[in-house]
Amino acid sequence: MLLYNGFLYHKERSNAQKTVWRCCLYDKISCPARCHVLNDSVLLEIQKHKHAPNPINIEMKKIYNNVKNIARNTQISTHAVISRGTLSISQAAQGSLPSLQTIKKYVQRIRNRDSSILPNPQTLSQLIIPDIYKVSLSGEVFLIHDNNSPRRTLVFASVRFIDALKNSDFWHCDGTFKVVPSIFTQLFTIHVTIGNTVIPAVYSLLSNKERASYEEVFAIIRGVVDGNQPGSILMDFEMSMMNAARNIFPDSSIKGCFFHLGQCIWRKIQESALVLRRYKDEPDFCLNIKTLMALAFLPPSDVIVGFETLVTSPFFADNIEELQYITDYFEDNWIGRNGHNNIRRNARFPIHMWNLMQTVMDGQARTNNAVEGWHSSFSKSLGSSHPNIWVFLKAIQKEQNLNEYRLSQANAGANTPQRRVYRDLTLRIENLVRRYQPGTNILNFLVGIAFNLNI
C-alpha cells in the first residue's frame, strides 16, 4: 500500500521503468487516480481523485499495521498488543475503531496464521519439532540436541554463541520454571560474560531437575566448544546442578550465587518470630547477623577461624539462646561441624563453592542477578505462564536474534550501565578485601563487609 499526498493507493502493475499504483477506492467508486513510481519516488500523478482525502481512514490503516507488527514480533498478551498499538491515537480514530473484541480476534488470527495453527502436544512423545523451529530466524542451525527420549531434553544454541562460550572465562547457569510449556519442567540457560554484560547463549528445555539431565546438557556444550572449560561457572546452590557441572567441567571453579546464600540465611531468620522481629526492628542485630554472610569475603584459609571468632564474639555469646539454631545451621551446611579429635566434617556446601575473595579480586559477578533480570524480561515478553510450545519456540528464536545484536555490542566494547549505588557498594567491598592482610582484625573486617550487604 502506498500513502501519497493524503491518499492511499494499491499496487496495480510494475515493469522495469516504473510501478503503477491506483487509488484504493477504485473498486468501490471507480476512482481513476493513479501514481507512477520509480525507486520509491513518485514520477507522475495521473487524473484527480473523485473523493476527498480521509485522514481518519489512513490513521486506522496505520493502527492496524502497528497492531499486526506488535502481534507478530512480541509474545505479550492480546490485550497488551492492543494497548501498545493504539497509544497516542486521535479522538477521531478512537471513535472509528471497531469493538475491542473485534480487534482481539484480529490479533489472534494474525498469531494463529503465523504459527500455522500447529496442534499443541500434550505429552513429550507427541512433540515433533518442525524444521522451522530447528533454525534461527536467520536460517542457521539452532537446535543442536534432541535426545527424543522419555526424559526429553532440547538444547538450542547458535554458532556465534557457541564461539562466545569458547572465549568466555565466566559462565552463569540458572533454571526458570513458569515460562516453559507444560510438557517440560524447566528452561535451563547458560549465559556468557563479555566485559560486564551477561548474555544468554544456550537455551535448554528439560523434563526434570535431575543431575543426569544437567550432565547431558553440559556434555553437549563441552562437545561443541571443543572441550574448552571456563575458569568459573556461577549457579544456584542446587547440588544436582553443581555436581553435574563439576563432573563435566572438572577444571572449572563451580561457584554458588551469593544472593542465594543470603536467601538461605533469611529463611532461617524467619523460622523464629523473635529473631525475625529483632532483625526488622534492631539495626545492630540485623548488622551482626549479616556478618555470617561476610565470611564469604575472607581468604578461604581464614573462613573457619572467622566463623569461630564470630560465634564467640560478644554479640553471638549474648544472644546464644536465640541464635544457636542459625549458627548450627550455618556450621552444618557451610562450614562443617566440629567432630571427634577436633576434625570438622564435610559441609554440604564446601567453602570453595561460596567463597568470594578471588571473585572480588578478579572483578567478577557475585550473583546471578543479571540472569534473574533476564528471566523476568523473557517472562514478560511471553505474556503468560506455561505458553504453547510453538509460542515458546518462536520466542526463543526472537530472543536469540535480539541477543546477536547484544553480543555484537559487547564485542565492540559496550558495557551494561550499572546503578551508582551498586557500583559504590562493589567498590567499598573491593577496597576492604584488598586491604585485608594477615593480622587484620577479623571481627572488624566482617562488620565492615556487613555494612555493605543486604539479604
TrEMBL record:
Q: Does the keyword Zinc apply?
A: yes
Specify the superkingdom.
Answer: Eukaryota
Q: Where is the MULE transposase domain?
A: 171-261
Q: What keywords would UniProt list here?
A: Metal-binding, Zinc, Zinc-finger
- InterPro entries, sorted: MULE_transposase_dom, Znf_FLYWCH
Q: Name one Pfam family in it.
A: FLYWCH
Q: Which residues form a coiled coil?
A: none
Residue stretches spanning the membrane: none
Q: Which GO terms describe its molecular function?
A: zinc ion binding
The UniProt record lists the FLYWCH-type domain at 1-51
Name the chain's protein: MULE transposase domain-containing protein
Q: Which organism is it from?
A: Thelohanellus kitauei (Myxosporean)
